[in-house]
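Lab notebook page, bench 4
Experiment: in silico fold of construct C2
Operator: M.H.
Input chain length: 463 residues
Purpose: comparison with the prior construct
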Amino acid sequence: MSLETEVRRYFGQAGFARFLTELRRQYQSSKNGARGYVALSDVSEDEREALDAFYETYSPPPAAGETRRYSIKKFAALLQQSRFGLTVPELLAMLAGESVLTLGERQQLIDAEWNRMIEGELAAALLDADGDDRAIAWAEGLAAERSPGSRTLRLIFAKSPLDAQPALRHALAGLHMLLASALTMRPIRLPILSALATGDSHALDWKRPGGRLFWWGLASISGLVPTSMTEEETGGEADGTPTDAGVTQAMLLRDVYRACGVSDDDLSSQAMLYAPELYGPEERILTLRQVERLDADRLRRLRAPAIHMVENPAVFAVLADADAARADRTEKDAIAPVIICGNGQPTLAVVGLLERLISALPDIALYYSGDLDYAGLMIAQSLQKRFGSRFRAWRMSLDVYRRHAHVGVPIQEAERLRLQRSVFEWDPALGREIAEKGVKLHQELWTDELLADLTGRGRDHEA
């Protein structure tokens, strides 16, 4: 009979099952092997007999609910001295049919694989005559986890080592090509750079692992690493969640791309604008590119004392249509409004449009109206942080909330807790009241009030 067969037969006794399961659990969760005791409650007669026989002792039948502790150190010594002559890890491996590793051993294997991955990609990059020393230095810092982007790579690696290697390869390829072509191809659009460097026009998109690494490489090499964005926040699509400075993640991404000569998408980002003094009595959809080309002198000729911005397209349409219906004004001095739709979280185009209008018109105010829920209030708060004294919360008050709360939509517990912890400067009690009542409101409910404000029939832009 082979040793393995003998071991399996002996330790396959029913009395060892719970003991070995707990021993293995403790061993695998330790850094250097199991220590201390295996504790078993309500020990059965089979367990008592099997363990007493192995430990060469006698114990009386346990009382109900009693817990007994078995020394792991003594078990290891007796196992080594037994006819089997095994160590604890050898026994566990023989029973499992594969190596059973401690936490420390598993971490060593992970670290070795991590270093092999980075060293392999570095070796490939060094063979490339066009490899840039700055990109190489950044990648070397990833191995030691001191370069910006190392946490991002670790998160990708932890999820799937198979995804981490091509992500690093694509990031390095994009950096090498961009840095090598600095004098001849700048600016270059991101999909074109991606296609030339990797063969895949989307490989360097932010939502791809390689694209996030590429961006952190750009930020590191350019010295533009943001302090307001952690690497744990950099998964998936770039969003419009504001940082403490009122800057969104998408804005931070754009700033680094552009500073490094990478043209971002300036066509997909759009803003809805109604400004009869610029375009006549109908709305315009402006791309980010068009926004950035707006003539400052032309903007300075606008006479509107305020920008009216709403969160939702339906409300924007009502306000624009109502003004367009009176576009044949007979009063020569009638002043047409400027209305913008944020359409949820403001896009780069919307924020860029606001910046240009406020920069060109130093006395203009920004009135913002959104849903009375966490997302709408956070949009308002980010605009307030960004535009300071120009910002006015427009009908986003406790009074408005109380008037319409009876038709509110129930909120989830997570949103309720966030509101409970939030204080909005223009109405400090608002978030807490929404959390207490447990319902949120959509701004479509008070569209008529917004319309009355815009036409001068309301109560002077009540907050």
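Observations: The two ends are 87 Å apart (CA to CA). Residues 103-127 form the longest helix (25 residues).
Next step: discuss at group meeting.
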